[in-house]
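Let's study my pick:
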Amino acid sequence: MIIYNAEIYSMTEDMHFYGYVEVQDGKITAVEQGKPEDVSEEDIDAGGGVLMPGLIDAHTHLGIIEDGIDFEGDDCNEISDPFTPQLRALDGINPYDRCFSEARASGITTVVVSPGSANACGGEMLLMKTHGRCTDEMMLFPCGMKFALGENPKNVYSDRDEAPVTRMMTAALIREGLQKAKLYAERLERFEEHPDEEEPPEYDAKCEALLQLLNGRQKAHFHCHRADDICTAVRISKEFGLDCVIIHGTGAHIAADLFGEWGLNIIVGPILCDRCKPEMRDLMLSNAAILHEKGCHIALCTDHPEVPAQYLRMSAALAVKGGLPREAALRAVTSEAADIIGAEERIGRIAVGLDADLVLFPDDPLDMMQDPVWVMINGKMV
């Protein structure tokens, strides 16, 4: 299949050109400038519209907090234990939640679905497409472990008269869990090297779940709003050699020069919301722009359902209003998002070998009066 007569925003170094894209077996097999030599009835005329990679919402609770349903459909926070790395978002997502279709219709082809931030560690996050019959066929891979600092764990467990009730204890619980997993991994390694001499450690589901994090195959996603909480996340990450991603970063602009020096990855959002709690008092529309200017790597998110996922493009447009360059805003919901979540070999750009996740807009992708003409996931119109 060839998609031709398109204004292509490839999100590669050669970002913007007129050309065509060839798709075969769900993958992009060619990206060229100009016109194809020949087209068939099966090929698609883009009509001069803007062809982009499918949009990526880098942090959501899509399907794990179901639309319009109270406790029965809310599987986001397991508040029976403040440290739950053994939980998997995969097991809590309802792929038939109608918000998947709303996200898809707005041009979002991939989302990160995360457990909530009630716990110091909430569980394993999932990177998944927005179309499919069950979560297993929609998933790309588990992309990170969710940690939370700041008010959320404090508020949940102080109401229950349990730990943690301070930022100190939240950080201590994370360190304790990571240290146990580190020792567990060392014992496993000794056993594997000398099975006749060493005993394997007793199975521990929490430690097992953290092994992928400690060996660098998953990233540590820290829910942080305040700048001091971001510093704590970085401190813990350095102690244990973690690949750190900051989620939200509402107050990050306060120390943007420092975070830029550190080269932090920050998933900014929600943008389109109120200052609903004290740690969000520094929410500013210019946050993403300041962080980008100072050298941070940024993606944008809706934190669905805090802001419904279909407003990801609006969030990008508002970030531009706040001073973020237009190209940076488009990258923040495509290529930069893919890089930050570790999915750059699958999604986020129009490039040979990547998944054929494409969206066609009639004109400006950030014009909220326009809807996508069509959306494609894995080479199929959805």
Q: What stands out?
A: Residues 167-193 form the longest helix (27 residues). The chain has eleven helices and 16 strands.
